[in-house]
Amino acid sequence: MLANVQPEVAGVGLGYRMHLHDQILSARQSIDFLEAISDQFIYATPDRIERLQAALSVYPIVPHSLSMSVGTAEEVDAEYLRRNANFVQSVNAPWYSDHLCMTRVDELDLGSLTPLWFTDELVEIVIRNVNRIKETVPGRPFLLENITYYVSMPRSTMTESEFVTKVIEGADCGLLLDVNNVYVNAQNQGYDPYEFLKRIPLDRVIQAHIAGYEHGEKVLVDTHSSPVSHEVWDLLEFVCRNSPLRAVSLERDSNFPEFSEMIEELNHARKVLQRCGRYP
Amino acid sequence: MSVLEMQRAFCRILTDDNSRKLFLSNRSKFLTDYQLNVNERGALEEIDEECVAVYVELLINSRIDLALKALPHVRAHLPSDFQQIYGLRYVRDYPSILNAEEPPLLREFRQFTEFLNALLEEGEFSGGSFKDALRYDWIIFFLGNDLATHSALTEFDDDFLVGEGVAVSAGSVVIRSPGIVLESFEHGLIGQSEEDTSVPEGTEPPPSRHILFLKRRSLSNVSVYRLNSATVRFLQNCDGRRTVAEIANSLAGVGGIAPVSKCLEICRSFLRTGVLGVVPRGRSERIDA
């Protein structure tokens, strides 16, 4: 279990998107917190930071970064970590997160969350990198998120659930469980999502992501561009009943519906939390 | 650490289509360039070709989608199968190389814009409207995201009198904000609500449009205004050295806004919106034109 999780952040949150700023600010009764993509602010012009600060005056903000690349067999980029740590502290984040994947090798930026080889060596690499990350922001929990993957690396020596478990427990960090990713991976890789959930350390789940997927030609694709499916809602309820989950956030990145539709999805998530006795 | 070599090889396969072809035609030969142990080599040799193809497509789409988010007018000009036709070439010719001096989003946007310009030069896309759209979107994105511009704006706001209520007279010296760009466009890009910007085939293109882009320090968005030629000439002369009266006199007879009163009216409007600042008395001699 994780210590130091600030109790005031709980409930349902929305991924902060700049163009939704005004609508977000006027929806305080429907949104409990915001999740901000750190990468959009750690290099931004000061006016954008000021805009986020305006949101911070209304909502708690949870930073979520994209580019730590914890699975690359190299040192994590020190300058990126420094900027990220400044951002986490500037918004007084209750926790912060990134993804269990690699996004770069040497100087090559893949620009996408790329899966890791499920081996003990990679477990050790991720743990080493997470320990380095945690040193940069002492006292605030760090969460890793499970990603979707479309390439399965042969000769892995363990399953995805074993890999996730070894990393999360070995690095002593929290789990940001993307429930949509669990569903998409289960469909694409051919496993039972509930069995997967039973095998990972649900006692370390602090936050969950919900989102929509689309049907590609051959696979389901995690696009954040459609409504949350009923399968994902069911999985969220399962997670909620079997973990100390305290926060659920909706990710939407394209094909934006009316703002009220996103609020409806947040209300749905709130009801799930309420049914499980998790809504404050 | 050979797992790093494995990751290098894997990334190469995903991001470089020549390497990928080489790999898929002869995996063992391709992998001889990498220092791998038996399992690492075996894993890459056994990787599913179809999965690689799916992942490559996702990587390409992810990069192009990111760049296109900042190119709304360009997006409207691109063929629907743009990513299928040009995606592989884009990621091959413009690999995404980390650069501490340039934020990733700015880098992706710059590279994609360069790529589109290269396609234009090759004649892949015709029509000035595409070129105009590219220039237009580039200016908006750059003004909105460039840290140097933001720093210059901070200095401008500190050094000059800007904003609502600033007094201006014929003897005032006025200066343009560093947050403005003035450009002419041949094709309608903005104000689709103002007018129909479509140009039926066989007709003359619409007259040149003078567009003023304005980034203010306190606002995230870049504002866009259409100006007439006379106002453009006036604005171009606001160099921080001449008074409003001197500028008006220099423009008299050029088909411009000769009366000082008219120039002052424009000044007041531009001061309110932050396009211009007034140089405090005693400071004009220090401005390096």
Describe this protein's structure.
The complex is a heterodimer of chains A (280) and B (289). Chain A is an alpha/beta fold and 280 residues long. Chain A has a single domain (9-250, 267-275), classed as TIM Barrel (Alpha-Beta Barrel). Chain A has nine helices and twelve strands. Chain A has an eight-stranded parallel beta sheet. In chain A, strands 5-6 form a two-stranded antiparallel sheet. In chain A, helix 4 (120-136) packs parallel to helix 5. The two termini of chain A are 20 Å apart. In chain A, 53% of the residues are buried. With 289 residues, chain B is mainly alpha-helical. Helix content of chain B is 54%, strand content 11%. Chain B has 13 helices and six strands. Chain B has helices spanning 2-15, 17-25, 27-31, 38-46, 49-69, 72-77, 82-93, 104-121, 128-145, 147-159, 229-236, 244-251, 260-273, and strands at 173-176, 180-185, 209-215, 222-227, 239-243, 276-278. Residues 191-206 of chain B have low confidence and may be disordered.
Summary keywords:
heterodimer, A: 280 residues, alpha/beta, TIM Barrel, eight-stranded parallel beta sheet, 9 helices, disordered N terminus, B: 289 residues, mainly alpha, three-stranded antiparallel beta sheet, 6 strands
